[in-house]
Design goal:
Helix content is 43%, strand content 16%. It has 372 residues and is α/β, with parallel strands linked by helices. The strands form 4 sheets. The chain has a 7-stranded mixed β-sheet, sandwiched between helices. The protein has a 4-stranded mixed β-sheet with strand order 11-8-9-14, covered by helices on one side. It has a 3-stranded antiparallel β-sheet with strand order 1-2-3. The radius of gyration is 20 Å and the shape is globular. Bound molecules: 5-S-methyl-1-O-phosphono-5-thio-D-ribulose. The site of 5-S-methyl-1-O-phosphono-5-thio-D-ribulose has 18 residues, from helix 2 and strand 9.
Length: 372
């Protein structure tokens, strides 16, 4: 709790299991779900018990630690094979959020590094198991620290008394804690900036209505829930000062994949001269992809569009197309807020600098922990 904002831990490791708040049940029920095998952890991601790019990354890291914990392999080669298989299973859970494969690669690379430097044998397998759990814990703790830095970096561009428009859920629930774009809002709240937030409901899964509204009400941040279709009207009539949202993947040129509907908001914001900030940690930046056109866009089942709660709102058998994300070309962004500062155009250069600084910070933290 800081200045009245209650924080939480969305995903964590306890007694050899990966535990998380079941986000499918919010806001009606607050329940902790437990997962004890790697395929089950993958299911927690694909079925969206946990969602939001950084939270998915932390869950996948714990999934890799779980694979090591459960491995029956007697030596490091066998354990590495189990980890490679676990990485494949986890990476296949959802395609768009790059934090997933970023996290599994980080743990696998560390394991390969430790195994390569030590003589094979039972002792190495035990060392690897301990090292992977420590790395998953470090990744989760680091996520919270990074989000706070990012939040305060972003708060610097939000004027006193501003009205912000926010899409999807990017808060404590979408990360390990504090959030990305919602982290900016929490930072403003901690600074007593007197802000107000327009919360997009975010059809079809209603992450805004179910999760963001729940988080902001707990934190006592002044807000109104709006139908997605109201956003354009509010922007044209001068009721929005700043637009903030997160990202599931940012391409090297600054194009952003985020929750479906983000593109439409950014275009209307530009039309009305409203600044637009994407807020994402450097782990969400994928320098291997040149632009947004090559980011994989997840397509989800028709029931998400056809049903609201248990009730069907369309004729039985209606054909449905349900892309879960869209691409906002970088020309619509004022800036991309990261833990290493705010990146401005030209994004290809500013993002590369931020990613390099982010990698150096991870290395520095590891050498403090004396990880090889
Ligand atoms: O389908 P979801 O709920 O996982 O989508 C989440 C988003 O689009 C968020 O905006 C994004 O992950 C950034 S959150 C920190």
């Amino acid at each position: 709790m800081a200045n009245g904002v209650p924080y939480m831990r969305t995903v964590y490791w306890q007694d050899g299991q990966v535990k998380m708040i079941d986000q499918r049940l919010l806001p009606g029920e607050e329940q902790i779900a437990e997962f004890a095998t790697v395929p089950e952890v993958a299911r927690s991601i694909s079925e969206m018990y946990v969602r939001g790019a950084p939270a998915i990354g932390a869950t996948a890291a714990y999934g890799m630690a779980l694979a090591a914990h459960l491995s029956q392999a007697g030596d490091s080669d066998g354990l590495l094979n189990d980890l490679r298989q676990a990485k494949q299973t986890l990476d296949a859970a959802r395609p768009t959020a790059v934090n997933l494969s970023w996290a599994t690669r980080r743990l696998l690379t560390l394991a390969e590094q430790i195994a390569g430097e030590a003589p094979a044998g039972q002792g190495t397998a035990r060392t690897l198991k301990e090292a992977l759990l420590a790395e998953a814990q470090a990744l989760a703790d680091e996520d919270v620290r990074i989000n706070r830095r990012m939040g305060f970096n972003g708060a610097a561009v939000v004027p006193e008394g501003a009205n912000l428009l926010h899409h999807c859920n990017t808060g404590s629930l979408a990360t390990v804690d504090f959030g990305t774009a919602l982290g900016v809002i929490y930072a403003c709240q901690e600074q007593g900036k007197n802000i107000h937030v327009w919360v997009d409901e975010t059809r079809p899964r209603l992450q805004g209505a179910r999760l963001t509204a729940w988080e902001l009400m707990r934190a006592e941040v002044p807000m109104h829930l709006i139908a997605d279709n109201a956003a354009g009207h509010l922007m044209r009539t001068g009721q929005v000062d700043v637009v903030v949202f997160g990202a599931d993947r940012v391409a090297a040129n600054g194009d952003v994949a985020n929750k479906i509907g983000t593109y439409k908001i950014a275009v209307v914001a530009r039309e009305n001269g409203i600044p637009v900030y994407c807020v994402a940690p450097t782990s969400t930046v994928d320098l291997d992809l040149p632009d947004g056109d090559v980011i994989p866009i997840e397509e989800r089942g028709p029931e998400e569009v056809v049903e609201i709660g248990a009730r069907s709102v369309a004729p039985a058998g209606v054909p449905v197309y349900n892309p879960a994300f869209d691409i906002t070309p970088h020309r619509y962004l004022t800036g991309i807020v990261t833990e290493e500062g705010i990146c401005y155009p030209p994004f290809d250069q500013s993002l590369r600098n931020a990613v390099e600084k982010g990698r150096a910070a991870i290395e520095a933290e590891r050498s403090e922990r004396r990880v090889p």
